[in-house]
Amino acid sequence: EMVKTKTKLQSEIFRLEKLIKALQYSLGRLKCVVPTYESLFAPVRRLPFEVLQEIFEQTLYSSLNDMFPSSDINKTVTLTPIRLASVCLYWRGICLASPSLW
Asked: Considering the entire predicted model, what is its pTM?
């Protein structure tokens, strides 16, 4: 009787260990997906096109002023629009539709 109980318990432990491994694997996959899912609901995604465009323009001008504080150098060359356009497809569309950024 004790041998049967021991065998039964060992089988149950083995089954539970397999279940734990499967759950850990699922948890690992979820941890990879959660940041993407959360970013879909970020408040910045609800900002209108025009508001983001204005923010981008202000970012561009502030970065130019930081690079050339008191210079007459042509201030049209900056990587800011390229960096902004690399964030996501929506931001890329805003950058490409905004001649003032280039």
From this structure: 0.52
